[in-house]
Write a structure and sequence with these properties.
This is Xanthine dehydrogenase family protein molybdopterin-binding subunit. The chain is of the alpha+beta class. α18 (about 670-685) links the parallel β29 and β30. It is globular, with a radius of gyration of 28 Å. The N and C termini lie far apart (about 65 Å). The relative contact order is 0.12. The chain binds pterin cytosine dinucleotide. Pterin cytosine dinucleotide binds near residues 540, 544 and 737. Pterin cytosine dinucleotide binds next to α15, α16 and α18.
Length: about 775
């Protein structure tokens, strides 16, 4: 049992509990040795789907000539919108257009007559194998009436900008407000100083190891689809697929095998999945689609891409009086959840860790001739924290107050929780100053501050950066099922779906503790819509809070039922029975006991006698639909030391310290791994990543040669520490951790680089901090 071996108790775990131990992830052996089955590994004698994609960023499709492709040996079909239109399927991806301020027709699975981003699917080709399919794609000839494109969300709202939809002259899909404009104006008028910043939050694309893929099978007799695909949300995908295909959800089963990373973009519904299913029905044959790496970059979905003008109102003593934020965020050619849900996930986090009495945020979600924008690890929260933290540094600079001191003066205090922010967030719990001090202590802030802004012996300028953050985690409902078989083994099912997070390990820790059974007796399965009646999925660092609590509640129900059976078997009063160490014992008579497995066997026998065959072999089962009692707000402080070469613009991160608080930690090693991954991605955004479009809407960064992921050599050792402030809003006291690193790292690194360049009079440099961009910033203040 992992209680005796393999675990590395970190001091917070009690002797016999698994929760709190850094047990090795049980899924890793399979993942690391290449034995895991991913969607593309399943062949099922499938035909292959590939797409003819728009070669232009904006235009009309004048003609499509597929005759040459149709004649090619091995080609089974070439389809355009007219074919989809003539079928019973609506063929339009459900992208919550109803939540937008304007009427737009939605994202057709194949272009109707207009293309609004380079890479938009125009025709679908199905062939016997993937090579023939790709050759046939090359043989389809499309003529375009090219239109001027607009790719920058700020430019898209200016007069005279090209428009994507006739009925939306300013390209604004959604114009939303949060906070109180009048109070904020009053706060600004009364403040000693106002500091303003223009900020760019660069456009990112998830670079998961596994590109998106789908394998659809169709059973004509039952009019029933089974779709295996790469998803973070099996039930979400079932709902969206059924809407796109015009089916009842009962006609679709979604099965999600191993997923090689998601980072947000596998929660989004892409044309490829829907068309694989549509073609499977059309051809009465299994059809598989696997995106190439370039296709992944072309229609991502993408994320971030904000242009923001923000201001902070402060008094000379460092008291923050207000924030004013005006953001234009790209949603791409077709309005999507990521853009449209921005006021909630973005604006609502702007108060960060601070007591800010007045905040006003205007957010415009803007159509641009770019790939659909959805979410990327953090989804709105990194953008918000970036704004607030950059403003804190700018205000400190203006006031001549140490940036840490300015933050400290405005922190919400531990006894102020629950705390309502000016943008309507209700923070559950926090001890911000302790985490801040831990970070400062770890990095040696005092000494670092003394060296900051000055060239060292090697001629490079040192800087220290700090960012404090909060993060909304959890939300919505989740389903958790616990089933005990007659041999006492336990199967756990949840509506979430791990795509790298380690749920198989952490859910097993939770359930084994509740039931008091050996860890190895608990199996965890996710990803089959047949296993749980409903479910929400894995995103927004919600799984532990919602899925973890759901399986724990079910385990508690199971334990109650088992205790009843044990009481009967032991022939004593219920009050005299305790469960411990995988057995039920009579109080005061420890030798008088019955094992969990014997109880399960007895319960299964009784079930058999009742004659219900569907339950054969099942001793106990409980299913819980759990919804937390409000959002849990994780938090922390990250800090970094950098060295900047002012001759070349090269940035080196010399040290990086992350102090995170995600409440009780189920598995501190997994938590640490999540922080490492998130920080690596956050550093990627800060230093090198960015999807770049030409003015004509052509994507210039369509491969890993041009989209610069961080490499091991550009990452520092990531030092992690933790504080533990439980959340009162769920039974586990947990908060999420999956996205903390991507939220904290960008402002931390930019803060450190700006600090290093302070003697040049530089207060801010936009991401990514490539050598080119850093040099340009130095040259600009140097007067060229
Ligand atoms: N955990 C814990 N104690 C806590 C909180 C979490 O032990 N207090 C553990 C959990 O049990 C789980 C892991 O840490 O095994 C992450 O849990 P949680 O914070 O609840 O987040 P989710 O499982 O919901 O994961 C979502 C989050 C998001 S939104 C993205 S994007 C993301 C991420 O997780 N994408 C990832 N981490 C990723 N990690 C990998 N390897 N690959 C991705 O695509």
């Amino acid at each position: 049992d992992a209680r005796d071996a393999g675990g590395t108790p970190d001091g917070s775990a009690s002797e016999d509990r698994l929760v709190g131990r850094g047990i090795d992830r049980r899924e890793d052996a399979e993942l690391l040795t290449g034995r895991a089955t991913y969607t593309d590994d399943i062949s099922a004698d499938a035909a292959h789907l590939a797409f003819v994609r728009s070669a232009v960023g904006h235009g009309r499709v004048e003609s499509i000539d597929a005759s040459e492709a149709e004649e090619m040996a091995g080609v089974l079909g070439v389809y355009t919108w007219d074919d989809v239109d003539a079928s019973p399927s609506p063929g339009v991806l459900p992208i919550r257009t109803e939540s937008l301020d304007c009427e737009v027709p939605g994202h057709p699975v194949l272009a109707r007559d207009r293309v609004r981003y380079e890479g938009q699917p125009i025709a679908a080709v199905v062939a016997e194998d993937r090579y023939v399919a790709r050759d046939a794609v090359e043989a389809v000839h499309v003529e375009y009436g090219t239109r001027p494109a607009v790719v920058d969300p700020a430019e898209a709202t200016e007069d005279g900008a090209p428009t994507l939809y006739e009925g939306v002259p300013d390209n604004v899909a959604l114009d939303a407000e949060l906070g109180d404009e009048t109070t904020t104006e009053e706060a600004f008028a009364a403040a000693d100083r106002v500091v303003e910043l223009d900020l760019v939050n660069n456009r990112l694309v998830a670079s998961a190891l596994e590109p998106r893929a789908a394998l659809a099978r169709y059973d004509a007799d039952r009019d029933y689809f089974t779709v295996e695909l790469t998803s973070q949300s099996p039930h979400g995908h079932r709902r969206k697929l059924s809407e796109t295909l015009g089916l009842d959800e009962e006609q679709v089963r979604v099965v999600v095998p191993r997923v090689g990373g998601g980072f947000g973009h596998k929660g989004h519904h892409h044309p490829g999945e829907a068309m694989a299913a549509w073609c499977a029905r059309e051809l009465d044959r299994s059809v598989k689609w696997t995106a190439t790496r370039s296709e992944n970059y072309r229609e991502g979905a993408h994320a971030r891409d904000h242009r923001t003008t923000a201001a902070i109102a402060v008094d000379d003593d460092g008291t923050v009086r207000g924030l004013r934020v005006d953001t234009r965020a790209a949603v791409g050619g077709y309005g999507l959840g990521g853009g449209a849900s921005m006021p909630g996930w973005y604006g609502r986090l702007l108060s960060s860790q601070y007591r800010i009495p007045a905040i006003y945020c205007r957010t415009r979600a803007v159509f641009t001739n770019t790939a659909p924008v959805h979410s990327y690890r953090g989804a709105g929260r990194p953008e918000a924290i970036y704004v607030t933290e950059r403003l804190m540094d700018a205000a400190a600079d203006e006031l001549g107050i140490d940036p840490v001191e300015l933050r400290r003066r405005n922190l919400i205090e531990p006894d102020e929780f629950p705390y309502e922010t000016a943008v309507g967030a209700s923070y559950d719990s926090g001890d911000y100053e302790t985490a801040l001090d831990e970070a400062l202590d770890a990095i040696g802030y005092g000494e670092a501050r003394e060296r900051a802004g000055e060239p060292g012996d090697d001629g490079r300028y040192r800087g220290v950066g700090v960012a404090c953050f909060t993060e909304s985690t959890g939300g919505g409902f989740e389903r958790g099922v616990v089933r005990v078989r007659r041999d006492g083994s336990v199967a756990v099912y949840a509506g979430t779906h791990s795509h790298g997070q380690g749920h198989e390990t952490t859910y097993a820790q939770l359930v084994a503790d509740e039931l008091g059974v050996p860890y190895d007796d608990v199996e965890v399965a996710e990803g089959d819509t047949d296993d749980t009646a409903d479910g929400t999925g894995t995103f927004g660092s919600r799984s532990t809070i919602t899925g973890g609590s759901a399986v724990v509640e079910s385990a508690r129900d199971v334990l109650r039922a088992a205790r009843g059976v044990a009481t009967d078997l032991l022939g004593v009063d219920a009050a005299d029975v305790v469960s411990e160490g995988g057995a039920f014992r009579v109080v005061g008579r420890p030798e008088h006991s019955v094992s969990f497995a014997d109880v399960a066997c007895a319960a299964a026998e009784a079930e058999n006698e009742s004659g219900d065959e569907s339950d054969a072999g099942i001793a106990f089962e409980a299913s819980t639909r759990y919804e937390p009692d409000g959002t849990a707000y994780a938090f922390g402080t990250h800090t970094a030391l950098v060295a900047v070469d002012a001759e070349t613009g090269a940035v080196e991160i010399e040290r990086y310290v992350a102090v995170d608080d995600c409440g009780e930690r189920v598995n501190p090693t997994i938590v640490e791994g999540q922080v490492h991954g998130g920080v690596a991605q956050g550093i990627g955004q800060a230093r090198s990543e960015g999807a770049v479009y030409g003015d004509d809407g052509r994507l210039l960064t369509d491969s890993m040669l041009s989209y610069a992921l961080p490499r091991a050599s550009s990452l520092p050792d990531i030092e992690t520490r933790a504080t533990v402030t439980p959340s009162p809003r769920n039974p586990l006291g947990v908060k999420g951790i999956g996205e903390a690193g991507t939220i904290a790292a960008p402002p931390t690194v930019v803060s450190a680089v700006a600090d290093a360049l302070s003697s040049f009079g530089i207060a801010h440099v936009d991401m990514p901090l490539t050598e080119e961009n850093v040099l340009a910033a130095i040259r600009e203040v140097d007067g060229g």
